[in-house]
Amino acid sequence: xxxxxxxxxxxxxxxxxxxxxxxxxxxxxxxxxxxxxxxxxxxxxxxxxxxxxxxxxxxxxxxxxxxxxxxxxxxxxxxxxxxxxxxxxxxxxxxxxxx
Length: 99
What we know:
The protein is α+β, with helices and mostly antiparallel strands.
């Protein structure tokens, strides 16, 4: 879980898709120029394998306490302060990432 503040001129910068019937959003792509790219640069600055960086295939499981896909997307569009919880599949297991 980590918190991002979006700048007025920049969005979150993620291409997202629902994960089948699960209430997750799957990260398809981290887009250039967005808040998530800046977060990743900060995370990876000293550690290229930092697990806090968001990668394609990661799942967003909640945004600002909302855990339903449409509500999470609405939070990403309407709020500047986002508390995001990410989960990553590691060797067949879903593991929540804590930043």
